[in-house]
Design goal:
The structure is a single chain. The chain has a single domain, classed as SH3 Domains (SH3 type barrels, Roll). By secondary structure, it is mainly beta. The radius of gyration is 11 Å and the shape is globular.
Length: 70
């Protein structure tokens, strides 16, 4: 089961990724801007989602269609 970013590049545990779109975070008033680098992603059982951490948001889950490998 390969996890791929928006460009089709295979993502691995601990990779750094960049957002390709501004994303509004549900449950908060935060918006994560395009170009933000997310460090050390964690792969999940779902190949379309990755767990990650952001400075202001804990337990963030992002869809791979909005990411590209940094």
């Amino acid at each position: 089961m390969d996890v791929r970013d928006s460009n089709g590049t295979i993502l691995q545990e601990g990779d750094n990724v960049t957002l390709i779109k501004d994303l509004k975070v549900k449950g908060t008033s935060e918006t994560i801007k395009r170009g933000t680098i997310i460090k050390g992603i964690h792969l999940t059982d779902n190949p379309d989602e990755v767990d990650c951490r952001h400075a202001k948001i804990k337990g963030l889950v992002l869809r791979t269609e909005f990411l590209k490998k940094a």
